Amino acid sequence: MEKKELIKLYLQNVDKMFGYANMNAYIDERLKKYTKYCQSKKPEEQIIIWLKLLHENFGKKIVYLGSYLALQEKDMSYLNNAFNSAVTWGQLTITNSGCDHSIHAWNILPHIFCANRFRDIEKIFPKENGLSKNGLKSACSITNLVMYLYYQEPMWKQYVIDESKEFLQNKHTAEEKAVINGFLALIEKNWEKFSLELANLCKAHRKSKDYGENPFTRKISFFAFGLYNFARYLYREEVKNITLPQNEFLFEDFRIYQESTSCQIGQPFCIFEEPLLLLNDFEKIDLPIMYLTAGKKRVLDIENYRQEVVKKIQALHSNQSS
Questions:
Q1: DSSP H helical segments within 34-170, as ranges?
Q2: What are the residue boundaries of the structural domains of the chain, listed by start?
Q3: Residues 35-83 pLDDT 10s
Q4: Considering only CA atoms, which of 107, 62, 71 is closest in space to residue 269?
Q5: Residues near 311 by Cβ (< 8 Å), separated by ≥ 6?
Q6: Do the beta carbons of residue 27 and residue 85 sit within 8 Å?
């Protein structure tokens, strides 16, 4: 795709997706929130306020701005850094949707893959949570496929495969089916099938009617590129057998950039100055693990998670002052 067209589409749609026209707009939005909600609060109160305020559509708005800046400035490090920060803020600001860990499947997982932050799978899909059973069917299936591929728990394998094949027999979107077929191809190490599903996923995403999609976001399938990165993480040199989608920005410029840096994880997307220094600390801590509540219908334990974040940032401040 012509990069100039992507830049044009971003600027045409940035207001519709409540995004940021540039880095200054990104910072200014946080300054406004600080002035309105945080200025007179104690540090501990500010931490909780930021966790509730900076939802950012699961970090997607950071990634969209990073994509635009990478294209505009011809510097892919903007996008690499954006993925890194989106993974952090996407986890930190997750809210209780009534689902289990499957809520991460369509929202944060693709960014984790694109950022090469595979250890974060242990944060969003801890083995102790077990397989997903409470959420959107495609999200549960994706969660369980990833958990099997990552942890290689033999007892899960047949259940996960059967669940996914049953899902594929029913009526679902082309995008959902391409993602799940892609993961099944990874289990089988069927590179021809995997290559086909990457192409199918890019094609299906261009036609997506999901809430929040627009002419810019439909042009870039983060899940397709993320699947490729996950395949490389799992199988290393065997990815040379994959046929990559053509005329896709991520599979061309961005893939080349990541491989030139040995797929190094990015830096924080933005280093904040006074009075926003606290925001930098969120990206310095080792993120807590997101466990589930007890009971029949298990959901994310948001309350305990937030308290863990507060403790970690307070510990960071104690270490800095000692």
A1: 43-53, 60-73, 77-92, 109-115, 121-124, 137-151, 154-168
A2: 3-321
A3: 999 999 998 999 999 999 988 788 999 999 999 999 999 999 999 999 9
A4: 62
A5: none
A6: no
Q: How high is the pLDDT of residue 55?
A: 81
Return the C-alpha torsion angle 316, 319, 320, 321, nearest 10: 120
Distance CA 121, CA 151 (A): 10
Residue 93 corresponds to which tokens in the numbers above?
């600001």
Q: What confidence tens digit (pLDDT) does each residue in 234-281 have?
A: 999 999 999 999 988 899 999 999 999 999 999 999 999 999 999 999
Residues 297, 98: Cα–Cα separation, whole Å: 9
Say how far apart CA 251 and CA 253 lie, in whole Å.
7
Percent of the chain past pLDDT 90, that is, above it, reads: 89
Q: Using CA atoms of 213, 197, 106, 128 in order, give the dihedral in degrees to the nearest 10.
A: 180
Which token pair is 232?
């490389």
Query: Could you identify the residue written with the tokens 């899902």?
Result: 167
φ, ψ (nearest 5 deg) of residue 67: -65, -45
Which helix (H) or strand (E) element contains residue 57?
A: none
- Rounded CA-CA distance 46/270 in Å is 19
